[in-house]
Amino acid sequence: MSAEVKVRLLDERDSIDELTNLLHDAYRVLAEMGFRYVATWQGPDITRKRIAKGKCFVATHDDRLIGTVLLSYPPKNQPCDWYRRSDVALFQQFAVAPDMQGTGIGSQLLGFVESRARELGARHLACDTSEGATHLIRYYERRGFRIVDTCDWEATNYKSVILSKPLTTQTGDIGMQQVIEQAFENKESVSSEAREAVRETLKQLSAGKIRVAEKQADGSWKANEWIKKAILLHFRTSEMRAMEAGALHFYDKVDVQGDWAAKGARVVPPATVREGAYIAPGAILMPSYVNIGAYVDSGTMVDTWSTVGSCAQIGKNCHLSGGVGIGGVLEPMQATPVIIEDNVFIGARSEVAEGCIVREGAVMAMGCYMGKSTKIYNAMTGETIFGEIPERAVVVPGALPSRDGSHQTYALIIKKIRDEKTDARTALNDTLR
Predict the structure, then answer these.
(1) pTM as predicted
(2) Which residues contact 367 (CB under 8 A, 6 or more apart)?
(3) 374-382 contacts: CB < 8 A, separation 24 or more?
(4) 102, 132, 115: which is closest to 37 by C-alpha?
(5) 79 or 39: whose pLDDT is higher?
(6) Is 12 a catalytic residue?
(7) Are 97 and 66 in contact (CB under 8 A)?
(8) pLDDT (0 to 100) of residue 432
(9) Exposure class string for 362-390: b at 16+ Cβ within 10 A, else e
(10) Which of 38, 116, 142, 360 is 20 to 30 Å apart from 45, CA to CA?
(11) Active-site hit among 114, 128, 214, 303
């Protein structure tokens, strides 16, 4: 681009007619799919009324409007429970000019809105879209949003899903975070206030209210360092003690979780989950181990003798096959833990460690070993990458020759992009759930 893209508040320089036309252009493909979004038909008067209810931001390039988003707090008479919460901010009229889509403008606008929502004191940022617009749902899920509610609006012809993203875990409860930060630097003693903050952090981790790492608007992941510090403080301040989980007996500093019926997860004995890990409703744990700080989302199966290391983040509908090892990362503080995004299949006895990322829909064959220094060779393009497996890539173990041809070194090989045959081989079996 010849000029910088700027994001700013809508002001008197801007034409409401031009803004309305931008919305029509951006939403035209949805109208052609049969979805009656308000932005597909609204006139300038409705645009003006809608932006009066919040803060309208626009992206401009060479004085042209190329994107927009409206941030507000939803009125309390909303028909869905999530929008009636006082800590939820809402964004609407999110649009990017068709010829500018795919250039990062949408991510820039979303990141801008997230920052402003935090400044307003919101703890969650939400939006809604048609349940049939699966491409939009995937777009938001890749950026850390999750479906939390559904709703029927009078002005539309479809059922909506409400997608929301927690904002508080970027900085957490500011008071609690400050207490933990200060206590971590004090090597001499830890106050009773800090101990209570540590206990509350582990409690919120176990409930899935906060998490060690979160996906950003641009698709990257960011570690919440203060939460990792709280976990390390727990080890510093806790005494070894005897504990029981059913017929099993332990001697450790971290409690073992239970009450799985109430939590909605299926846990097969002797699977073990330490306090401070989150297991979402609908997850399945065969005899396996999930360490403190880890996050296992709904629909995921952690198969027999698999381990999910400290702070590792596992997405929705994944399958960690028998004996899979997902590494843990507590230190250094700024290090991102291992990330396994949604709908990933990892074959038996494979290992992912050292903060590597496996992107959405990827497949790792049996016996794949991945660390930061592992070469990942794309057989389709000839490119070699490190530390991250791309979306829907199908990966197998292999080897690459040295420059002088004297030996070969271990590598992962991207053989193809996931297709229907791959989906059939890796499909989760509902009868086992």
Answers:
(1) 0.66
(2) 347, 348, 349, 350, 397
(3) 374/410, 374/411, 374/412, 375/400, 375/409, 375/410, 375/411, 375/412, 376/411, 376/412, 376/413, 376/414, 377/411, 377/412, 377/413, 377/414, 378/414, 379/413, 379/414, 379/415, 380/414, 380/416, 380/417
(4) 132
(5) 39
(6) no
(7) yes
(8) 55
(9) bbbbeebebeeebebbbeeeeeeeeeebb
(10) 116
(11) 303
pLDDT of residue 429: 56
Q: Is 186 exposed, middle or buried (0-12, 13-18, 19+ CB in 10 A)?
A: exposed
Indicate which residue of 327, 351, 355, 360 is catalytic: 351
pLDDT digits 0-9 by tens, 141-199: 888 888 888 888 887 888 889 999 887 544 445 578 888 988 888 877 888 888 888 99
Q: Which uninterrupted H or E stretch holds 13?
A: none
For 184-200, give the DSSP string.
HH--S---HHHHHHHHH
Q: Is residue 283 within 8 Å of 267, Cβ to Cβ?
A: no
Upstream peptide bond of 337 is cis (omega within 30 degrees of 0)? no
> What's the pLDDT score for residue 430?
55
Instruction: Please confirm, yes or no, whether 45 is among the known catalytic residues.
Output: no
Sheet holding 339-340: strands in order across? 278-279, 295-296, 313-314, 339-340, 357-358, 388-389
State in Å, rounded, how far the first CA of the chain is from the last one: 51
Residue type, 410: Y
d(CA 324, CA 352) in angstroms, rounded, equals 8
Catalytic-residue membership of 328: yes
HEC string of 50-61? HHCCCEEEEEEE
* Residue in 144, 325, 328, 361 annotated catalytic: 328
Cβ neighbour number for residue 221 with a 10 Å cutoff: 16
Characterize the bridge pairing of strands 124-130 and 159-166.
Answer: antiparallel
Q: Is the dihedral of CA 98, 100, 103, 104 positive or negative?
A: negative
Q: Write the CA distances from 431 to 29, 281, 304, 306, 427, integer angstroms.
A: 38, 17, 17, 21, 12
* Angstrom distance (rounded) from CA 305 to CA 322: 6
Q: What is the pLDDT of residues 11-33, one digit of tens each?
A: 888 899 999 999 999 999 999 99
For 199, phi and psi rounded to 5 degrees?
Answer: -60, -40
- 163 phi/psi in degrees, rounded to 5: -110, 135
What is the torsional sign of CA 308, 355, 165, 46? negative
Compute the distance between CA of residue 363 and CA of residue 399 in angstroms, rounded to an integer.
18
What is the number of H-type helices and E-type strands within the chain? 10, 33
Q: How far apart are CA 288 and CA 12, in angstroms?
A: 60
Backbone angles phi, psi at 359, to 5 degrees: -75, 165
* Residues 108/5, Cβ–Cβ less than 8 Å: yes
Q: pLDDT at residue 424 above 80?
A: no
Q: Please report how many Cα atoms fall inside a 13 Å half-sphere around the Cα of residue 369, on the Cβ side.
A: 6
